[in-house]
Design goal:
- The chain is α+β, with helices and mostly antiparallel strands and 375 residues long.
- 32% of the residues lie in helices and 35% in strands.
- It is built from six helices and 19 strands.
- It has helices spanning 2-25, 91-126, 132-165, 212-222, 225-231, 368-374; strands at residues 30-36, 39-60, 66-71, 78-79, 84-88, 167-169, 174-176, 186-187, 196-210, 236-239, 250-254, 265-272, 283-299, 303-306, 309-315, 321-328, 336-341, 348-350, 363-366.
- A hairpin with a 7-residue loop joins strand 16 and strand 17.
- Helix 2 (91-126) runs antiparallel to helix 3.
- The longest helix has 36 residues, at 91-126.
- The relative contact order is 0.20.
Length: 375
């Protein structure tokens, strides 16, 4: 405790000596840039680590069994919904169609025969030559023949549809993924791997998490997760190389269930991706703007730090400077600080050369206009 007092006393003495020497030698006060404080609306940007995922993806699987006859696209191609991706050999399917058509013709013949039999027995029944039981049997045979015909016609429709399925098309717009098969490979609907995956990259989903404290603050300010998502401003994105993504995004969903381990809340923002610059799986830094009303903003270079405490030099009416402790928001843009306590509008602070000043030293203040002329 005594040592601390001694150091502070020594510093005060040095300040007095410096001022006394300045007066004795007639040295002119040091010119310093001075900023008069005012309150203003300030927009701060907070970064969040994020992961980018595609808006959606669809596995493309064959609906018929057969050998891949032709591959019409390559990995990484952009395709539209309905574009032809693969052609599966049609020989087996055409054979199935021919068999189905033959079965239909045979079933039609069976129906015609059963119809003739029924018509004949119906006349005999009217003449009371045969019994009602014989007529019923003929009617049942006709019904069975018609049912068999319907089955054969359904099989033909299915076979003809399988012929269409030999042309595998894209279900959505997107990028073609990995193609594990090549022409000549046998594939089916039960194959382990899909023919490929089409990924929708027209827009990208950016997922990031906010802390429990931030989530509570947003809930108090806006209300429900839906209301929070609607109220939050547009967001920006820094890519992994440090560049700023040229398109802004919007918050779409705010999870109502916190993470069981960290208590954080997951948020999703969507970004347009017209140039397909972003790929699914990329990482980035989402930038969330925060508006501070009636903020006092000072340049970071106007402050200095001693033992984890931050100070500025306030200029008095007599142009002497006095070290004043301040508190600032941890969120900053790397150039300025938002002061939360220690300063008020109307005061003046020194903005340059603060490490060379001493408590009580007299300066020659100059405002921004004078500073611009001097430079």
């Amino acid at each position: 405790m005594k040592k601390t007092i001694f150091i502070l006393s020594a510093a005060a003495c040095l300040g007095l000596v410096s001022c006394k020497q300045q007066q004795q030698t007639g040295q002119a006060p040091a010119p310093r840039n001075v900023l008069q404080l005012k309150t203003e609306e300030c927009v701060l940007t907070k970064p969040y680590s994020s992961i980018l995922l595609a808006n959606g993806s669809v596995e493309v699987r064959p609906r018929v069994s057969g050998y891949i006859f032709k591959q019409h696209v390559n990995e990484g191609d952009y395709v539209k919904a309905g574009d032809l991706l693969f052609t599966i050999d049609t020989v087996q399917v055409v054979a199935e169609i021919n068999v189905a058509r033959a079965n239909v013709e045979a079933a039609k013949a069976q129906v015609e025969t059963a119809q003739l039999t029924f018509d004949t027995k119906n006349e005999l029944f009217k003449q009371q030559i045969i019994s009602a039981n014989d007529l019923q049997m003929a009617q049942n045979s006709l019904a069975s023949a018609k049912a068999a015909l319907a089955q054969c016609q359904a099989a033909l429709v299915n076979a003809e549809r399988n012929l269409e399925f030999c042309k595998v098309t894209s279900p959505i717009d997107g990028l073609v993924g990995i193609i594990p098969y090549s022409p000549g490979n046998l594939v089916s609907s039960t194959s382990t791997n899909p023919l490929t995956t089409i990924t929708d990259v027209a827009k990208m989903r950016c997922y990031f998490s906010i802390s429990e404290r931030e989530a509570l603050a947003l809930s108090r300010q806006y209300g429900s997760p839906e209301e929070i998502a609607a109220a939050l401003p547009e967001v920006e994105l820094n890519l992994v190389d440090g560049s700023r993504y040229p398109y802004k995004g919007r918050v779409i969903t705010v999870s109502g269930v916190p993470d069981g381990t960290t208590g954080s809340i997951r948020i999703r923002a969507d970004f347009p991706n017209p140039e397909m610059m972003i790929k699914s799986g990329f990482s980035g830094t989402l930038l969330m703007p925060t508006t501070v009303e009636d903020a006092i903003v000072i340049p970071q270079q106007a402050s200095y730090e001693i033992q984890s405490k931050r100070f500025v030099y306030v200029v008095s009416d007599s142009n002497t400077v006095h070290a004043t402790p301040i508190e600032v928001l941890s969120l900053n843009d790397g150039t300025n600080f938002v002061v939360t306590s220690g300063l008020k509008a109307g005061q003046k602070i020194v903005t340059d050369g603060v490490t060379f000043l001493r408590e009580g030293q007299t300066i020659a203040p100059r405002d921004n206009a004078q500073n611009a002329k001097a430079e």
